[in-house]
Amino acid sequence: MGPYAEAYAARRMAAEAAVGLIPSGSRIAMGLGVSQPPALLRALARRAEAGQVGEISLYYLLAFANAAPLLRSDLRHRVRPVSLFHGGLERALDREAGSHDLPVVDFIPTAFSQAPHVLSRQVDVDVLLTTVAPMDAEGCFSLGTNTDYALAVSQSARQVILEVNPAMPRTLGNCRIPLDRVTALVENPVPLLEVPPAKIRENDRAIGRLIAGLVEDGACLQMGIGALPDAVCAALHDRRHMGIHTELMTPGLAELMRRGAVDNSRKAIHAGRTVFTFAMGDRALYDFLDGNPDCEAQPVDYVNNPAVIARNDTVVSVNATLEVDLQGACNSECLAGWQYSAAGGQLDFVRGASASTGGKSIIACHSTAAGGTASRIVPRLTGPVTTPRNDVQYVATEFGVVNLRGLTLAERARALIGIAHPDFREGLERAAHAAARGC
């Protein structure tokens, strides 16, 4: 540690002592997904259980198992969870609350690109809790899998409490926290949380092949979460000279780099390097990212800025949705009246890809849901508009791909009915006249 050894030692302490520095009433941001620090969160939960801390608000995106000790209905009176992107834990808590009670987890609607501003300036977070890689020779800690909003919060929070884990990859880019910004350090050498891939079904593969047909050599890729984007990656192994500029780095994208399909040689910015803001996957992905000079982690307000995205040519953005109405608007975040996920970076990349020279924005979904009993192409959305009809370009299901750009409302309805499941087309045709009137 050289010249930083004394300062490091002064900040190193047990998890209980570190969270003991957090006063009641604090606004805390914890890292996203993989970077959520298990030792710190368990210690904070124990303090809440013992009544030693209260009136805490916990802000975050996409909680995983490490956050489960704090995301509990019985702690709601002491720790108020506030999500900017829901996942399985939040959905389970909503089911636990039941239809007649308020959700256990509060929700802030926002684009992913705005999360750093929301947390560091609007909410004005007091404390950052996140996992980092061990300190480097320059006295800095790499944020590893999760630069996203953590870098901005580390620069504005009054306390920065880090869980140092050698299993966290040391990623390169604009993703480091200097020791002089750190309040406390907790060393916890445990395996990093791994996210198993979603099972790819045959209709995923069918959609993946259709979308792959739109992707040419030299395209710059952004892929979202789930089986559909994974299926697209699997269908692109024979491409060459592609690039990656994506919010999420996945095993599927890493495999494209390993196979030589991605070399980033045709990118206008960050040429030769894959750019991402957070990563989720298996140990092989984390090892691939560790010290890899071909990959750069950057803050999400940079990565997801449509103007930055558009600086690369032939950007292809692939994201999933829950439902598409007959005018082309997409609801990608609410299901059956409950918050299911969030807007994330979908609209950021839809607009960035659309502004890219030769770019293509693709929204994909299975044609049906609920075991085939419901159509994902619907007359009217049942939730908020995540991506407006004005922005949607390509829509893909296992029955085809349509480009809505330049189509009238009536033409859009016919095109979307054509890629709906055959069992629902007749009903959609009966409803299509309402979409043609434009309201």
Contiguous low-pLDDT stretches (5 residues minimum) are none
How many runs of DSSP E, i.e. beta strands?
A: 26
Radius of gyration: 22 Å
What number of domains? 2
Family: Belongs to the acetyl-CoA hydrolase/transferase family.
Domain Acetyl-CoA hydrolase/transferase C-terminal: 281-432
GO molecular function: acetate CoA-transferase activity
Keywords: Transferase
Secondary structure elements and pairings:
Elements: H1 5-11, H2 15-19, E1 27-30, H3 38-49, E2 56-60, E3 79-83, H4 88-97, E4 106-107, H5 115-122, E5 127-132, E6 140-142, H6 150-156, E7 159-164, E8 176-178, E9 184-187, H7 202-212, E10 220-223, H8 227-234, E11 243-244, E12 248-249, H9 251-258, E13 274-276, E14 278-279, H10 283-289, E15 295-297, H11 300-303, H12 306-309, E16 315-320, E17 323-325, E18 330-331, E19 334-335, E20 338-339, H13 346-355, E21 360-364, E22 368-369, E23 374-375, E24 377-378, E25 394-397, E26 400-403, H14 409-418, H15 422-436
Parallel strand pairs: 1-2, 1-5, 2-3, 3-4, 5-7, 7-9, 10-11, 10-16, 12-14, 13-15, 16-21, 17-24, 21-25
Antiparallel strand pairs: 6-8, 17-18, 19-20, 22-23, 25-26
Helix pairs in contact: 5-6, 7-8, 8-9, 14-15
How would you describe what is shown here?
The protein is of the alpha/beta class. The protein folds into two domains: 4-187, Glutaconate Coenzyme A-transferase (3-Layer(aba) Sandwich); 202-437, Glutaconate Coenzyme A-transferase (3-Layer(aba) Sandwich). Helix content is 29%, strand content 20%. It has a seven-stranded parallel β-sheet, with helices on both faces. Helix 5 packs parallel to helix 6 and helix 8 (227-234) packs parallel to helix 9. The chain is globular and about 70 Å long. The model has no long low-confidence stretch (mean pLDDT 95). This is Itaconate CoA-transferase. GO terms for molecular function: acetate CoA-transferase activity.
